[in-house]
Amino acid sequence: MHPAYVVMNAIRISLSILVVFIISFVSYGSFSFFTGVGVLGLILIIVGFIVMVGITAGISYIYYRRFLWEITESDIHIYSGIFFKKQVHIPFQRVQSIDFNAQVIERVLGIVKLKIETAGGSQNRGVFIPALKLAQAEALRAEVFARKRQASAQQEAAMRQQMLTMKAGMAPAAAAPAAASVAQPRFDPQTGQPFATAQPQPRFDPQTGQPFAAAVGMTAAASATAWTAPSSADALVAGVGAGLGELRGIFAESYQEEAPIEYEYGLTAKELVLSAISGDHNFVLVAVLIGLATQIGEVARLIGLDYSAEALVERFLTTQVVPVIIGALIVMFLVIFVLGILGTAVSYGGFKARRRGGRIEVERGLVSRQYRGVSINRIQAVEIKQGFIRRLMGYVELNLHTIDSLGTQQNNQNNQPMKTRGLVIHPFVKKQRVEEILTQLLPEYNERPAETELRGLPKVARRRVIIRHTVFIGLIYAACAVTLTALLTLVFADELPARTITWILIVLWVLFLLLLIGRTISSLLWYRHAAYTYNATMLMIQQGYFGLETTFIPRQKIQWAQNHQNPFQRWAKVASISAVTAAGIGGTKTRLRDVQVEESLAYLEWIRPHTRPSS
Amino acid sequence: MRALPTRKLDKRITRVWRLSAIINVVFWSLICLLPVFIALMVIGADSSQGDSTDILVLTILNVVFAILAVVALIVFVVIVPKIRWIQWSFEVYDQEIDIHKGIFWKKRIIIPLIRVQNVDTRQGPIMRANGLASFTVATAAGEHEIPGLQVQEADELRDRVAILARIAQEDV
């Protein structure tokens, strides 16, 4: 592991502790904290902070010293832990992908956090190496994938050999030593240094018998340079130099797999800005803002009641406090709004997606940079997503459902997963361009059904969605509103000014009306667009209220399927259909409600092996 | 359209369900009833503090809980397991497992055997006492259990599905 880990980890933990301290002080109401502690107190706090940094640095140093990894002939070994020691062995065969992630400090130092994803049925596990030099990380990745290819080639060769020997009636024993002798350890397990004499043996393509030229070159380079750990000072200087020299293109010199890039695209500046503005969280924020502005009277009332003195309430309502609160809130939300836009812009800046051989690679981020590669067979479904605003603008987000893994590492507090679910392959693209991108990036999904083939839902689904989506929530809200109205007019009638009460009631019931109207419209929209279809190889489900989600699931990726009826659905002769894939952690269910029963049974027939749609 | 699957669970599974329902109902009744009993005893012992309305309210509460417990016992112990058994059916074909189950929420589940990753048989203490075992198939997206089978039957099913899953072919 890279020694800069110690410094980075210490800084990160100390900063978060500092933030917690400040927040807790401020929230205890001692706003005078910053002015009232005096010089001595300030010194004490600073000294305490430095001690804290020292302690965390010490712990980080011990962790750094104890963290060892090596590549043996059959797997990657990682030893870690201070009190609870842990050893992880990852056979090359099970490595699915190796991803990088770099925060700001790390980028400056030219360091990445490396995550190794493994395949293990439904219990996927990811393993982290918290800090590695970029070159080292890339060499590791190249080496592991080369070994993986080698291992599978060997396996294939051994199997072929075995079959040959069995056919010839010879003793199968000859095959095993032949296969075993191909691999030999190249790294000293003690030091992690390459053996001086080690030469990467050529790897043979099982099909042609030709050595992989690129792989040999890469491992040779890796053995020569990247694996030797430089001293910490050197590394820091070199890292800073490299980082400052090329802050943007830290992944520019990505390793070359033998497969060339087949298709690549980025994000135009216009797309980036529009994508930042049109996120639905902004829409929600604005809605909350409006809601708050209208309900401010109630807020003031609640604040007043906390002091439980009627005089205070009166003063609150008559003085200028309310406008000030409104102003402060509006400013706060504007700041959050702008920050949200900046956040999106920063996290999707420098976005690049490309197809290379059997993998799709995505890298993004202006400040913290992340790289993610996923093999095609880990992709379970393609999702075309639209929020409300994007739907109006005719833009979509392209998302892949991939099999994810949990990160397993001890200092988990700052190991957020690189992406919790799915892989965004384009955050903001015109609907007309989707066809082009998917055709080039994912030719495997070319046989997807067309939008024109979509089958809608029966009429009864409209009634049901209105009941489900509008009437239930409406009743609950109405019950609360009636209670509040009764309370205000009967109990608090003497304690609050009549005007305030009228005002609150108007807001309450206007909101109720708005809710009903909004929900009804979105229910009708849902009914109009909810649809599904399937052809020989793929299921397509489209649904959404204000937004719209279209999911393409290959039949081969459906782990199991069901139709599902509650008593009301039985009465209406409809059923929900679901397709469950292995995406995410432990599976992802895609469901469409209220398909006609016969159609849902036909869908199940389609799922059964060796049956085709009746068309 | 294909008919519902026909293979049934062993009838003895209703006994297992009943027993676990009894345990559940008794457990929750105790949790609801005990505090009321204790309150009654405390108030009854100290008659100077005891208000007759308090005792009345508590007694009514007690009776209501007791009635609820009896109703729950009848519903969950007598009726539900029976209906559940009637509704439960499954079939193992050469290429897929077909499950139909549910009382209010009815489900029909299809698991293609080519997606099956591993198969298990399991046995809890109540199951063992009744000579039953459950059979579980796991896919990359979760498990499905067929609960009440004779031990031998479950073992046979497990072995058969394991073989079928191995030879199942991708057909698209």
Helix content of chain A: 40-55%
Oligomer: heterodimer
Major beta-sheet overview of chain B: 3 strands, antiparallel
Report mean pLDDT of chain B, rounded to a whole number: 87
Task: Quickly count the domains of chain A.
Answer: 5
Distance between the termini of chain B: 21 Å
Report how far the terminal alpha carbons of chain A are from each other: 59 Å
> Quick one: how many beta strands of chain A?
20
Q: Output the structural class of chain B.
A: alpha+beta
Unreliable stretches of chain B: none
**What does the radius of gyration of chain A come to?**
30 Å
Number of strands of chain B: 6
The ordered H/E elements of chain B are HHEEEEHEEH
**What structural category do the secondary elements of chain A indicate?**
alpha+beta
- What is the CATH top level name of the largest domain in chain B? Mainly Beta
The largest β sheet of chain A comes out as: 8 strands, mixed
Give a structural overview.
Mean pLDDT of chain A is 74; it is low at 170-256, 303-309, 408-420 and 611-615. Chain A has 615 residues and is of the alpha+beta class. The longest helix of chain A is centred in the N-terminal third of the chain and has 35 residues, at 134-168. The two termini of chain A are 59 Å apart. In chain A, the strands form four sheets. Chain A has an eight-stranded mixed sheet. Chain A has a six-stranded antiparallel sheet with strand order 14-12-11-17-16-15. Chain A has five domains: 4-66; 68-258, no CATH class; 269-348; 352-457 and 530-607, no CATH class; 460-528. In chain A, 30% of the residues are buried. Chain A is globular. Chain A has helices at residues 4-27, 33-36, 38-66, 104-109, 134-168, 175-180, 213-226, 232-245, 269-277, 280-294, 296-306, 310-318, 321-348, 388-393, 431-441, 460-491, 498-529, 567-572, 597-607, and strands at residues 68-71, 75-80, 86-91, 95-102, 111-118, 125-133, 261-266, 352-356, 359-364, 369-375, 379-386, 395-402, 406-408, 423-430, 531-534, 538-543, 548-554, 560-565, 574-581, 588-596. In chain B, a hairpin with a 4-residue loop joins strand 2 and strand 3 (106-112). Chain B contains four helices and six strands. A three-stranded antiparallel sheet of chain B has the order 1-2-3. With 172 residues, chain B is α+β, with helices and mostly antiparallel strands. The longest helix of chain B is centred in the middle third of the chain and has 36 residues, at 52-87. Chain B folds into two domains: 13-86; 90-167, Pleckstrin-homology domain (PH domain)/Phosphotyrosine-binding domain (PTB) (PH-domain like, Roll), CATH 2.30.29.
